[in-house]
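Bench notes, bay 3.
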Amino acid sequence: MKANSEWKGDAERELLCSLGEALMYGHILEDLIRLHLCELAFFGRLGNARITEDDVKRCRLEEMIDLLPPTISPNPSFRQGLHTIRKLRNQVVHGLIDQTGEDLRTLEGCDQICALLKEITQLESKYLRPLKVAHEKLLRSVFVEQTQLAMERQTPPCGSVTASQMVTTLRKLKRLGEP
């Protein structure tokens, strides 16, 4: 399908930015959920003492959502909302063209896709807030109640850019040369 030149330029940038933002918020949610669960497991606050940081790191997003403590949000449907965001993220990643490709032919259709993606981003942002608050609260309490354990920690739950798989993969791609 060839896009109509009617919506090139600003509309194309708007679509790409909206898509990028929706995808990024979805992945930030996943990363914060994983980080929060790893910290809860390390400091023995997950409730299920048998689950370790390594167990959390191997979990799929669906499993991690189910592990979240109910205290993160007073809304009883918070986890259901996170599962719905997970499904939406997958639909955007794997089905955007299949589900909305016809709308890419016109400026009006492009605007509709952007509006949809912005609505997804707004909802993702609303679900990110209670996770962020819960994680900040956890970190404050850990440093007050378990200062020694926090200071002696040898392996943080996050890596660094220089040691990341992304850098290794990027180097491999660069060695392949220009396409």
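Next record in the batch:
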Amino acid sequence: MSEYEKILQEMRKLSYKNTELSERLELVIGENAGKIQRMKEDEEKLIAVLKDLTEEQTKNRDSELEKKEEERLEKERADEAKKQSDISVITNLLENKFQRSDDFVHKENVKVYRNVQAVVVDELKRYTESAQEEKNAINAKLGKVMKFSVISMLASIVSVVLWALMAAGIIK
């Protein structure tokens, strides 16, 4: 029996050791369960914080995107306003250029009109002088013809008087 008692004693030792290990295991599990519970709570807190951060980042990103879009639209509006301003300036410049061009063309047209008028007046004077010279030349020729006609008429009258005297028998 001694062997039986040895085995029994060994079984008791093992049982005692098993109990001791079970108690330690329960203690370790208890300690670790608290740690695990705290870790779960920490994890939930971290998840909540991450969720808040993610939501905040999403809001910030959305806000930033909206801000960038507003800035882009504002820049486009400013560019459009600048283009309109540039177009207005260019239009005013063109209108001024056209006005100056019209004024210049008008002045040149007046100069040309006056030059043409001066040429016409000069030509008219030359034509009048030429016509006067021709008239004077014709009058001079006509004067000679008149003198010859007067002499011819006097000769005709003398001839008629002589013929009448001859017919009357006064002159033979």
